[in-house]
Structure formats: C-alpha cells, structure tokens
Amino acid sequence: MSATGDLANLQKEFEQQASAVVGREAWDALRIAWVGRKQGKLKDLMARMKDIPPEERRDYGQAVNRLKTTVEQRIQALDVELEAKEKAASRTVTALDVTLPGRKPSLGTLHPITLVARQIESIFAELGYSVAEGPEIEDDYHNFEALNFPPDHPARETQDTLFLERAQADDGTLGPKLLLRTHTSPVQIRTMLGREKPPIRVICPGRVYRNDNDLRHSPMFHQVEGLAIAEGLTFGDMKGTLDAFCKRLFSADTDIRLRPSFFPFTEPSAEVDVTCAACKGKGCATCSDTGWMEILGCGMVDPRVLEGCGIDPDRYSGYAFGLGIDRVAMNRYNIPNIRVLFENDERLLRQVRT
Ligand SMILES: [Zn+2]
C-alpha cells in the first residue's frame, strides 16, 4: 500500500477512536496516543519522508499536514465539548450536594465612624442632650454671619470653604450664595432660631466639608457639635460636662486641660486636650511626647450670637463645643491615614468588629 494510503487508514482509525470518547480520561488517552510528545502516532510520520520515493514526497508531505490539522482540531473541539459538560455537571452537583460544609456569609459591621458617633450620642443622651440635624448645603448667613464671622473676616479664610455655583434665573438675577457647610455650628443657629426659648441642650453630629486633603485631612469629615443654653450656665459647667464626657469616651482615668483659643462665635474660647490614651500621659510618639492629645474646641457662646438668634444675653448664657469624630476613630483604632476610613475596604471593618 502507498504511503498516502497508510495516512488515509490512520485517519479512519483516529475518527473511530475520537467518536468513542465520552469522558476526560478517554480524551486524555486519545490525545497522548495521537499527538503525545513521546509516542504520538503522528510524531514519526515526517521522519518517514526519507523512505518515500522522491516523486511522492510532495503529496505525502501535504497529506501528513492535513491529517495533523484534522487530528489536532478534533482533539481541541472534544476538549471544549467536555469542558462544557463538566461545568454543567459541577453546577448540578453543587446545587444538590447537601453534605458540603456551609459557606459563611461575610457579616456586615458598623463603620468605625458610626461606632464612635453613636457612643458620643449615647453619652450626651444620658446627660440630657437631644440630637439635632441640619442641611449640609448651607447659606452664608447660617455658616458664617450668624456665627459672628463678619464679611471679610480673616477667620473665614481659615475654613477653606467649598462654594457652590450660583444658580442664575432667566432674567440674569443670581440665586443665593450657597456652600457646603464647613462645620456643624450652623445647626446651633438653626436650633436657637427654631425654638421659642431656652433651656436648650443639643448635640449635632454630621458631615462637614473643607478644601483640604492630606494624610490627616479629608475634604469631607465628621464633626459633632454641642450647645447648651440656660439661665446661669458658666464656664465651670462646661468644663465639668466635657470632663465627664471625656472620661466616658476614653477611660475613667482620663484628665482634661484647657488652653486659651479663639473662635468667632464663643468668648472666651478654649482648646481641650485629653490625656494621651497610648501612654497615659507619660509621653510617646502618638502625642509627640507631650502626654496630651488635642480633641475639642469649646467656649461660652458670644452674647452677639445669642442676640442675633433672639435670645436675651442678659438673662441666658450658654456654651458650645465641637470635636472631630474621625480623629477619635483614628486614635481608637490606630488608623494612621484618614483616607482609610473612606475607602470601604472590608479588611478595616473586620479589624474593628467587636
Ligand atoms: Zn502619648
């Protein structure tokens, strides 16, 4: 028989074997028998060329190539077919196999900021404060003017305000100048204006915005503001309240100290430091060896602010304070970069799960 006739027989043999393949094992055997590197049936066909009479070599070579292509394509097609069958089968098995161990759903957990905010709210709730909320888009009056920031006051510039584009009516008149609130203090103003008369005791937690972005600052962050107005409230009342609050928020052995400061809407004003929780006041890297952490701003509400909100400053007095929720969460959970708080990385949430 001619060499090309041998090839035709080989092809027939292959077709028979290929159509008998039903599973992965049979397919593997077929692949190794025909195109396996060591002893595949097609391997030595080209080596036989030297035994072929010269006039037949061209036809023989082409026939070998055709056979190789046919075999390879068929083996590949079978592979695809088998894979599809295997996938379908594994789906059915997963659905039916009730003996497999269950897969635990990953449980949700509260965000560190929510945890800290809720703790602060509950401490003040026990002290008789209620929670007040206000809009995040504010006007100049509530965010600045009513808080004793006159126009062109330099303190406005320290706030890196994000302004909104002013709407324009058809006749060209501009809408009100709006901004993203730079602090939660406008909620104080809204609370005072919205009530008939003191006593007032509220805290206002919420998001605030400033054009500021680095390791310790994010353009959006969280503050909680507190306001108390009544007859005869003193600086001593404020100090006592904040001392009790810090002992609850951190630990019973936490001390506070007040340093003079300036805010346009309080007079006098102070910054409040607490004992560094990491070293208990001894001095460490976290507190730059001072033993203290700056945590709050506070002060007695300026009589002009009270007056502007229709509260008689001769009869009533009050205090206000504010702190950054993010800063407390960063200290508590040892988070060095504020952006970690806003990246929604599940690993962070797993870490703070209690
Ligand atoms: Zn320290």
Could you give a short description of this structure?
It contains 11 helices and 9 strands. The chain is α+β, with helices and mostly antiparallel strands and 354 residues long.
State the domain count. Answer: 2
**Ligand list:** zinc ion
The CATH H-level homologous superfamily of the largest domain: Bira Bifunctional Protein, Domain 2
Question: What is the gyration radius calculated from CA atoms?
Answer: 39 Å
Strand content: 15-25%
- Can you tell me the CATH topology of the largest domain? BirA Bifunctional Protein, domain 2
| Mean pLDDT across residues | 88
Strand segment count: 9
**What helical percentage do the residues reach?**
25-40%
Q: Report the structural category.
A: alpha+beta
CATH architecture of the largest domain: 2-Layer Sandwich
Number of helices: 11
The ordered H/E elements are: HHHHEEHHEHEEHEEEHEHH
Characterize the main sheet.
7 strands, mixed
- Describe the strand arrangement of the main beta sheet, using strand numbers: 1-4-5-9-8-7-6
